Amino acid sequence: MDRPVRRLTASRFRTPYAPALALALVAGGLAAWAGQDWYSAAHDDRAAYAVQRDEALAAGEQAVQNLNTLDHRDLDQGLDLWEASTTGELHEQLGSGRADFAERVREAKTVSTARVLSGAVTELDERAGRARVLVALRVTVRASDGTRTDKDSRMLGELTRTDGRWKLSALGQAPVGGAPAG
Predict the structure, then answer these.
(1) Are 103 and 26 in contact (CB under 8 A)?
(2) PANTHER family from the xrefs (predicted)?
């Protein structure tokens, strides 16, 4: 018996490959879109600005904490940290008044520790290398008689980028409530 010969048509070959081809085209389109989106994000100025903002905030919080922490038993190390955290006029003021201040702290025999509660960058000019931060902190002062005092405060700091690092160039109390800045 002879079997009938089937004729293969072109449509029988194309049919199984059409969904695979469509799927490959969709996957290629998605890959191109994702690659373009990644490239745009990687070269976006806003990402670089956000990095500078985060670096300024971290440095500002740390510097404000440093300048509110001091132990009379290890005074030189604490004051060295103060100077390492500052630049400009603030740095000069700390250096010129260091001996008198150190003597007063030694006599008082106090230990102050600061803890940052929150912070924010209020201004950032990355091209000029200047930033301003607002930092809320809790300062605990232990006197020589063992008494402890906690004080919450808000500090306004100005930062200047020096040698690729943010340092405090000015520091002051932030106004509280309806009190005007003075």
Answers:
(1) no
(2) OUTER MEMBRANE PROTEIN RV1973 (PTHR37042:SF4)
* Close Cβ partners of 141 (under 8 Å, ≥ 6 residues apart): 110, 111, 112, 148, 149, 151
Q: 133 with 160: CB under 8 angstroms?
A: no
Q: How many separate domains does the chain show?
A: 2
Where in the sequence is the domain holding 129, given as residue range(s)?
49-173
pTM of the model: 0.74
Report the pLDDT value the prediction gives residue 37, as an integer from 0 to 100: 83
User: 157 with 168: CB under 8 angstroms?
Assistant: yes
- 178 in a structural domain: no
Residues 22 and 102 in one domain: no
Task: Assess contact for 141 and 151: CB atoms under 8 A.
Answer: yes
Residue closest to 58 by CA, chosen among 125, 131, 162: 131
Spell out a b/e string for 103-113, using b for 16 or more CB atoms within 10 Å of the CB, else e: eebeeeebbbe
Amino acid at 26: V
